[in-house]
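Hi, can you check this record?
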Amino acid sequence: MSVVFLDGAIVHYEVLGKGRPVFFLHGWIGSWKYWIPSMQVVSTSYRAYAIDLWGFGETAHNPQAYSLDQQAFMVRAFMDKMGIGKIAAVGHGLGALVMLSLARRWPESVDRIMAVNCPLDHEALNTRLRSASPLELVTWLGRTPEATLALSDAGKADPRAISTSIDDLQANNLFGAVRQTYIPCLFVYGQNDPAVPPPSMERLAALSHMMHVIILDGSGHFPMLDETAKFNRLLVDLLALDSGVSPQELQLKEEWKRRVR
């Protein structure tokens, strides 16, 4: 287990591989663990970091830092601690919102983003995310025994870290600000996700030309676990794009034909 101390508290992370840095941030359920298959694939060409956010996994509980901006400040402080200037970012749910907050404040620090099952506004979230306990959320959203195992750290989450971030999303126009950064961003959704369903056509029409959406028909809330091989091929394709190129330019494969915009 690798840790750093930020603001005098433990932040847990894991790292694999060498090359340009790719950061993975988990969602409202679980920890860094469910990124292991993706990290292993990416680590053949990149240096893959997975971080437990404040209040999750092995990272300290820090109720004063559970807002989206404060979680983004933590990621930025981690980058500074490691001497990392720019990253490719992969975030899921909460992690996607944190990466978008990071890109809003420090656009020069983020080269591209894969935002997985990311709510574009507060109304897109199923209210059960807020009301259920972390372990109840695993039962609801972890569709396979493999997913349940990968989410074994769910019980370590501070419920306040979940509720505070959801309140913050409701209070702030995060997505409206992010659209103006023009950082390449690929949104990936599981068609069968009951917690964060794919966005409406009205929302999709508001995306910039640097944003693109792909919907995976066989996935629920955890596309990286439900359709691991397909998800990882898409991730590798995104990372292979030249810097500054819109993800709309991804080379179409048969499995990506269910795309929007």
